[in-house]
Design a protein that fits this description.
Chain lengths: 760, 82, 162
């Protein structure tokens, strides 16, 4: 349990500045070690055999020829893994069904997507491993497949799971289907609300599956000793999550698995789960050697979670003055091969920026013969926001009201009840709207074929379990230890917060990210939680240190504890009768720590609550080339309520990075499947993410409305920025070509077709 | 007495269609036990699948979080990020 | 098939290693020479994370076969800092927070250096088009461009002074 930390706002010395990150030198010299950079003596190469069919019964797997090939040391199929019962388990950050996770790691009885793992080998070289894969004989009974979400919902769709009966309906269905769950959020009376409306806007929007697109493919090195003790070096968003999943999938004691975090080359949510690690451990156990596994880029696309493709239906009703009287949203999200699309979060965020009496949001979680979806930066929210913010744009046009003004009229503020339930407190949404209204871009002139689009976005941010330790070295420098991989510079922020509390200069505080045996449990780096929750643990640990330092000083001076204060990194004596006593700096106390009680260390574990939600408002200017349909992003400004920017450069970085991903999602990225359900563009050439020449400079405006729950007022920042861009770009394109396009991505051939149709 | 509300359909299967009710409870743990008592299965469902917003602040897995006499308590699905 | 013996110069030092004829230069650098600074992001020459200089020319080492390195000069990220002193590009990348996860950073730095070697005063557009072969998913490229511009300015000043 955490207590509310309210403190008078002191003058901050470190927090809010922009020191150089401590791991920067390693990363610019190529010295930093990522998942694929480790070597161990006797290391084998592990590879995976994958189903070439989108949906098939696995009739038999014959591994004898593969096992007999010289150089092959282990072959693993589902038969070598425990057959888990269905069980929900929190390991990453939210509940996962362990059985589904295990089946996704290795198929059992059925292959559910092209790329689904059916067997794995470990061999002395890459070439031999490849040859072994070819020698594994799998007999499939190919089944009809379905990928499009509405096709998967149709009554005649091929059913993936015979025991899937839709949850959340008024009546329990009699037949299985691909609809895992329906959720619904309701308030007021939308029938009455629409009846009261002067203007109604309706739209149907679609998005395609897109991948998180981290540049580093999944990679790990695993070794199992003869006594069963396991070690894994892995690039992930959470070494504890990897440990838990490996232990559960392989039925091991958690204490027998040690996971050492590699640096991670991007995650964005896609690395909050495991694909390789349990298999590498199983192969190592069987072979008696360390096993290294890395995915190719093609495997990353074919077999790791993209996010959902979806259909979004939106209906808005409003009065002439702009006040929305009713809003209805329906979301249909692909979950991939197993249930668990982010439609729940999509439903909760869809109307979150609007103060509404009458609303209804219905969400459908639908399984499809495509890779099991994984979290992707504000999972579910960008998709829903695309539909809602496009419809709002349409409404603004119909009413003749400026899009920012329309959002101000209906915008949430402190004291307003969110559509997903609770009352908002300490939010800065209206301030972000104002910031965009005031920004230079908003009044910049536009030329022919150019258009401007505006959109808003919301994300909850989470708290969760974190542990941090602070150790004082004998010379008065400090070490901050946490268990959160550093994706975007969080290590620097941890050191900064500790330095602030201790009163040390930032270069005297070194952060490290420790393995699972060397620090207490932490949930993943994700959900925009690290600066908030792990930061809270760091601050509390540092405060415990300060309390300890004051005690030591009291002992050294032989004064009462309440006569000791801590200022600017030193103990100060408040006892007037001891006027001669000079402040005692941290280093001086540390040097005498042995005599005053022993080493000075503190560790804090907590489950941080009260994470503050974030709001973003973006404006995007585009130019559309009528001949090619190509869209150039001319200008982009993103305003966001960040609470408190601990390290402003890295907060800006999160905003700019989220915008870039959103632009790619809007303009070019999509999974293209052929008639057999195989991904046709499983590489960076044809899965087109933004490159440097696709983007302008991205202006990030940081609004600081502090979250009183965090010692420095921080709110999570990493996820909000990907929510508005889809609609901001689409609304800009609508303004540029005069036609609303509702189906992402807005790639050149589609825009050309619209322009051609308009002309004819 | 804390007033508990949910706008989400998840709970209605257990509550027989009720979306709001008063509960005598001073902590989240007490709330869950009370609700499990009153609507069998609901307490367990909330523990596994829901987060609780107390006076606007979201709490997930927080038995010890305190409920005030006039607290507004919202049940919402658990949140996970990326 | 037996391995081939290859002699080359890497970051100014003579090296020798064995490699299968079909092995890429990237794999040889990483697995034989243990220079893991160059990364594999795609294996198909589309992401630039494996960028190195081959006889001064910017290439994707995943598209070069290891035997092609015979007798040639290769410069990787590991050779960019001299005697423990960072190259201005490296320093500016850190100063401007032009990296987040850092995975694309080695390739970007090699490519940026190749740019400044031929064009010491590039415009923003020239920087963006030159670096279009290096994918970054974290930063949105904004701070990378700023860092390159700042490094270019510093290098021009150093040149003027000397």
């Amino acid at each position: 349990m955490t207590d509310v930390m309210s403190r008078p706002a002191p003058e901050l010395k470190v927090v809010g500045t922009r020191p150089v990150r401590p791991d920067g030198v390693d990363k610019v010299t190529g010295a930093a070690t990522y998942g694929a950079d480790f070597h161990l003596p006797g290391m084998l190469v592990g590879k995976i055999k994958r189903s070439p069919h989108a949906h098939a019964r696995i009739v038999s797997i014959d591994t004898r020829a593969a096992l007999a090939l010289p150089g092959v040391k282990a072959v693993v199929t589902a038969a070598d893994l425990p057959d888990l019962a269905s069980e929900e388990y929190e390991a990453g950050e939210s509940a996962s069904n362990l059985r589904d996770l295990s089946l996704n790691v290795m198929a059992r009885r059925k292959a559910l997507y092209d790329g689904h793992a059916v067997a794995a080998v470990a061999a002395t070289s890459s070439a031999i491993a490849d040859a072994a894969l070819d020698l594994i004989k799998v007999t499939y009974e190919v089944l009809p497949h379905v990928i499009d979400v509405e096709a998967a919902m149709a009554p005649d769709a091929p059913v993936l799971h015979a025991h899937m009966f839709t949850e959340g309906l008024d009546e329990h269905p009699s037949l299985p289907s691909n609809i895992a769950k329906r959720n619904q959020i309701k308030g007021g009376d939308i029938g009455q609300g629409f009846a009261d409306a002067d203007v109604i806007v309706e739209g149907r929007y679609t998005t395609q599956a897109v991948h998180q697109g981290y540049i580093e493919p999944h990679a790990c090195l695993a070794t199992v000793a003869a006594d069963g003790q396991c070690q894994v070096w892995s690039s992930s968003q959470g070494q504890f999550m990897v440990r838990t999943y490996c232990a559960k999938v392989l039925d091991l004691d958690i204490s027998n698995v040690r996971v050492i975090p590699a640096e991670i080359g991007g995650g964005f949510g896609g690395k909050t789960t495991v694909y390789l690690e349990p298999l590498a451990l199983a192969l190592s156990r069987q072979s008696g050697h360390p096993v290294k596994m890395t995915m190719t880029r093609e495997e990353v696309f074919r077999a790791t979670g993209p996010t959902s493709g979806a259909v979004i239906l939106v209906k808005l009703g409003a009065k002439k003055d702009g006040k929305i009287t009713a809003a209805e949203v329906e979301l249909k999200y692909q979950a991939g091969a197993f249930s668990g699309s982010p439609v729940g979060a999509g439903s909760m965020t869809a109307l979150a920026v609007y103060a509404l009496e009458n609303f209804q949001i219905t969400g459908w979680d639908v399984v499809t013969n495509s890779p099991k979806v994984a979290a992707y930066r504000a999972p579910g929210a960008p998709i829903a926001a695309f539909g809602v913010e496009s419809a709002m744009d349409e409404l603004a046009l119909k009413l003749g009201i400026d899009p920012i003004t329309l959002r101000e009229i209906n915008g949430v503020k402190d004291g307003v009840k969110a559509t997903y339930g609770p009352t908002f407190r300490n939010i800065g949404y209206l301030e972000t709207l104002q910031a965009i209204k005031d920004c230079p871009q908003y009044s910049a002139p536009l030329g022919p074929n150019q258009g401007r689009g505006v959109a808003a976005g919301f994300w909850f941010n989470v708290g969760g379990e974190s542990t941090a330790a602070v150790h004082i070295n004998e010379d008065g420098t400090a070490v901050v230890v946490t268990g959160n991989p550093d994706i975007g510079g969080s290590r620097a922020s941890m050191a900064m917060m500790a330095a602030e509390v201790l009163g040390l200069p930032i270069d005297k505080v070194r952060p490290i990210v420790a393995d699972t045996a060397s620090i207490g449990f932490s949930m993943v780096t994700g959900g925009s939680r690290t600066t908030f929750a792990t930061g809270m643990a760091v601050v509390q640990a540092a405060e415990k240190i300060v309390a300890e330092l004051k005690q030591r000083a009291a002992m050294i001076w032989d004064v009462d504890l309440d006569m000791v204060a801590w200022e600017n990194g030193a103990a100060v004596c408040l006892d007037a009768s001891k006027a001669g006593l000079r402040p005692l700096p941290l280093g001086g106390i540390a040097a005498q720590s042995g005599k005053t009680g022993g080493p000075i260390s503190a560790e804090v574990s907590l489950n941080a609550q009260g994470a503050g939600p974030g709001f973003g408002v973006h404006v995007c200017d585009v130019e559309v080339d009528p001949e090619t349909g190509h869209v150039t992003v001319l200008r982009y400004t993103a305003a966001q309520d960040v609470g408190k920017a601990i390290h402003p450069s890295y907060v800006e970085g999160q905003i700019q990075g989220g915008v870039a991903q959103g632009v790619g999602w809007a303009l070019n990225e999509e999974y293209i499947f052929d008639a057999d359900g195989r991904m046709e563009n499983a590489g960076f050439l044809d899965y087109r993410v933004p490159v440097a020449s696709d983007l302008p400079m991205i202006d990030a405006i940081m609004i600081e409305v502090p979250n009183p729950r965090h010692p420095y007022g921080a709110k999570g920042v990493g996820e909000v920025p990907i929510v508005p861009p889809l609609a901001a770009v689409a609304n800009a394109v609508r303004a540029a070509i005069g036609v609303r396009m509702c189906d992402l991505p807005l790639s050149p051939p589609k825009i050309r077709a619209v322009i051609d149709a308009k002309v004819s | 007495m804390p007033h508990v509300v949910t706008t989400h359909g998840d709970c209605s299967a257990f509550t027989g269609g009720l979306f709001e009710f008063d509960v005598e409870a001073r902590s989240v743990r007490q709330l869950i036990l009370e609700l499990e008592n009153r609507f069998p299965g609901l307490g367990d469902y909330i523990e596994r699948r829901m987060a609780i917003a107390i006076d606007g602040e979201i709490h997930q897995d927080a038995y010890g979080a305190a409920l005030g006499e006039h607290s507004e308590v919202y049940l919402i699905p658990k949140i996970g990020g990326g | 098939m037996s391995k081939q013996h290859i002699s080359a110069t890497v970051n100014g030092d003579p090296v020798e290693f064995l490699s299968d004829p079909g092995t890429t230069l990237l794999d040889a650098l990483r697995d034989e020479l243990r220079l893991t600074g160059s990364k594999e992001g795609c294996g198909s020459g589309d992401c630039g994370a494996c960028s190195v200089l081959l006889d001064g020319r910017l290439v994707c080492s995943c598209l070069v076969l290891a035997p092609e390195a015979e007798g040639r000069r290769i410069d990787t990220i590991e050779g960019m800092a001299q005697g423990g002193v960072l190259h201005p590009l490296q320093q500016k990348f850190i100063d401007h927070a032009a990296l987040q996860c850092g995975f694309c950073t080695p390739g970007l730095l090699v490519a940026a250096k190749a740019l400044l070697d031929v064009n010491p005063d590039p415009t923003e557009s020239e920087i963006r088009y030159w670096l279009a072969g290096n994918l970054c998913r974290c930063t949105g490229y904004d701070k990378i461009v700023t860092a390159v511009q700042d490094a270019a300015a510093e290098l021009r000043q150093v040149r003027r002074a000397s």
